[in-house]
Amino acid sequence: MRINENFIYKIIAGQPVVVPVGEASKKLNGIISLNGPAEVIWKCLEKGMEYDDIVSAVKAEYDAETEVIKSDLDKFLAKLKAYGIVE
To answer: Mean pLDDT throughout 5-24?
Structure first.
């Protein structure tokens, strides 16, 4: 899985966000705010990490059950795919 090059990660006013650029900005108007776990996931995706490695990275940052992390990760990845943010 890789991030579509038309979406970039930025820190704006101290808040991590994803900004659509180029063709993506025509389809998705605005920015996407990332919470803490979503920011960890995004950084993992930027590094090209695999699913299980992303789960481990989130678990290392947040005290949560593995199954909860997997469920939340699945939902987040599904949203990213639906918007064409990850391919």
So the answer is: 95
